Amino acid sequence: MSLLKQKLAQVFPAQKAEIGAFVKEYGDTQVSTVTLKQAYGGMRGVKGLVCDTSEVPPDKGLIIRGIELKHLTEKCPEEILWLLLTGELPNETELLDLRKELFDAREVPQYVWDVINAMPADSHPMAMFNTAVLVMQKESVFAKKYAEGMKKDEYWEATYDDAIQIIAKLPAIGAYVYRKRFGHGERIIPNDTLDWSNSYVQMLGLPDPNGDFTKLMTLYLNLHCDHEGGNVSAYSSATISSALSDLYYALSGGLNGLAGPLHGLANQECLGWVLETREKFGGAPTHEQLKDYAWETLNSGKVIPGYGHAVLRITDPRFDAFLAFGKKYMGDDPVFLTVQRVFETVPDVLRQVQKISDPWPNVDAGSGALLYHYGLTEFSYYTVLFSISRALGIAAQAIVARAMGYPITRPKSLPTKGYMKLVQQ
């Protein structure tokens, strides 16, 4: 048994007992109220979910297991996965053991490559990627053991086994989708000496002479790993998983939500606007030019992509991390300079628009420009990168939910006439 699995076998029973005692004592305590506006507004702000892996306070941004994101930007994805599951960062021995576990599970079945190759040449990269995840469902340890009569206390272990198998294979699948979909050549066999994120970069096949692109991808995979439980991909996956669907079903379902333009697809829209802005001004515009252009955009009834967030009321710390990386590694790049100057100009404009409650950039405002700098210019692929990272958080949330024995998700819905009757009463 791996060190991570041994660790979880130790910590989960105590956590489950603590939650059980907590709910038994305070189960009838009201923690939220719901307004009609919230019911019709996507349940925004309603406290009705449990997510122990991360939280997103409006005034701080992403916090993973009690650690603010700004303290985790130098970590590797394997360390983040360990933290998501255990609440602690691994020591060197534990990290190496997890890397070995992922390495041993990385071989992708041949039928996955056959399915990808059989798809239409112009398929969307997300459709190719998610299909590859779903088609592997026949490998599910959870599905097999559940059919054999597995005990409830063992659900998390089988889900863990599925998670390791899936996460280990995602870099190879994601890299091949990139190369196949955009005509970059044959599949690249991974280097045996590289870790999870470095191997992904190697299999993409993009030039990286000084290793800076690898550094960016490690940061990218860290920053997008988790964002509490209420975002579309996490919530969709958790809902599917709550029905005891295995992780292959749950993850692919959640990632289909990630493909939407209001979720993971947003970064390519942001980059498109930045490139249009650069082209309009023949390079990185001045602050004064950007101010006028921002007002022109708003007055035409359009929004400035990448600014505003459903939860945050500060600059997204993930954007801060990308901005710092850009200043260090590509400060003269006109695309990045445009992103930087937009950040220095646009919030002041947005603050003058009364209906805008959050004038600050979110993660999508800057991530695409950095990828573009290193030659990853195929916009429609960006959501696949997001998916590989977000799989860490979705898998961790699924394992924890199974260990805690959380029930099927089943909120109550009412027709509009029902709400009208409630309001009248």
- How many strands, what sense, and barrel or not for the largest sheet? 3 strands, antiparallel
Number of domains: 2
Order of helices and strands: HHEEEHHHHHHHHHHHHHHHHH
- How many extended strands? 3
Q: Which regions are unreliable across 5 or more consecutive residues at pLDDT < 50?
A: none
CATH architecture verdict of the largest domain = Orthogonal Bundle
The largest sheet has its strands arranged as 1-2-3
Molecular shape: globular
Regarding CATH, which class of the largest domain?
A: Mainly Alpha
Would you tell me which CATH topology of the largest domain applies? Answer: Citrate Synthase, domain 1
How much of the sequence is in beta strands? Answer: under 5%
Which range best describes the helical content: under 10%, 10-25%, 25-40%, 40-55%, 55-70% or over 70%? 55-70%
Distance between the termini: 58 Å
List the main descriptive attributes of the protein structure presented here:
globular; Cytochrome p450-Terp, domain 2; 1% strand; three-stranded antiparallel beta sheet; 425 residues; mainly alpha; single chain
Structure description:
With 425 residues, the protein is mostly helical. It folds into two domains: 92-264 and 378-404, Citrate Synthase, domain 1 (Orthogonal Bundle); 267-373, Cytochrome p450-Terp, domain 2 (Orthogonal Bundle). Helices cover 59% and strands 1% of the residues. It contains 19 helices and three strands. Strands 1-2-3 form a three-stranded antiparallel beta sheet. The longest helix is centred in the middle third of the chain and has 27 residues, at 155-181.
